[in-house]
Amino acid sequence: MGARSELLWDTLADAYTRLGFDAVRDATFAKLVLAHIVEPTSKADTLRVLGELGVSVPSLRTVFRCLARCQEHDYRRRITDACLAHGRSTTGLALIMYDCTTVYFEAEKEDGLRKVGMGKESRVDPQILVCLLVDATGFPLAVHCFEGNKAQAKTLLPVVTDLIEGLPEA
């Protein structure tokens, strides 16, 4: 690993740990997250990024097994909990902000999540709704995904309820 790559990797790994994301306790997941910060790319191409950084590269099969673990062991909740803990310790969560956007797919048919709905671009392609909750500094606290035909106004209550249920006792 070159000196610049090592410094970059060590800095990102330190931030990952300081934010509490290491609570996931999955080295492959950490590598995927950090590699995507360096260069957002496909799962397969992430292996190239790791190699260029001089980090040991997992197999593509290991990456897919890691993604299955993300779902099975609810990594999203663990990361959200770490984000909330960080938010509480820095801004106190006195102010939270919420925004939603649509992401469309060039697919012919809808499925359980991708639905034709009202997007800003007035497209008729299936889409999903992605909603982000941040603290007063813009630090992300939680991200949620909804069916593409769900009204944005109907997403706030489930997201805030999930946030409140995830907060540890003060």
Number of helices: 6
Structural class: alpha+beta
Arithmetic mean pLDDT: 88
Please tell me how large the radius of gyration is: 18 Å
Helix content: 40-55%
The backbone outline, from C-alpha atoms, is globular
Number of strands: 3
Number of domains: 2
Order of H and E elements? HHHHHEEEH
Q: Profile the largest sheet.
A: 3 strands, antiparallel
Q: pLDDT under 50 segments (min length 5)?
A: none
Order of strands, main sheet, comes to 1-2-3
* Residue fraction in strands: 15-25%
Distance between the termini: 43 Å
Task: Give me a quick take on this structure.
It contains 6 helices and 3 strands, in the order H-H-H-H-H-E-E-E-H. By secondary structure, it is α+β, with helices and mostly antiparallel strands.
List the helices and strands and how they pair.
Blueprint: H1 3-18, H2 27-38, H3 43-53, H4 60-72, H5 75-90, E1 96-104, E2 127-135, E3 140-147, H6 156-166
Antiparallel strand pairs: 1-2, 2-3
Helix pairs in contact: 2-3
Would you write up a description of this structure?
The protein is α+β, with helices and mostly antiparallel strands and 170 residues long. It folds into two domains: 71 residues, no CATH class; 75 residues, no CATH class. 46% of the residues lie in helices and 15% in strands. The protein contains six helices and three strands. Strands 1-2-3 form a three-stranded antiparallel beta sheet. A hairpin with a 4-residue loop joins strand 2 and strand 3. Helix 2 crosses helix 3. This is IS1634 family transposase.
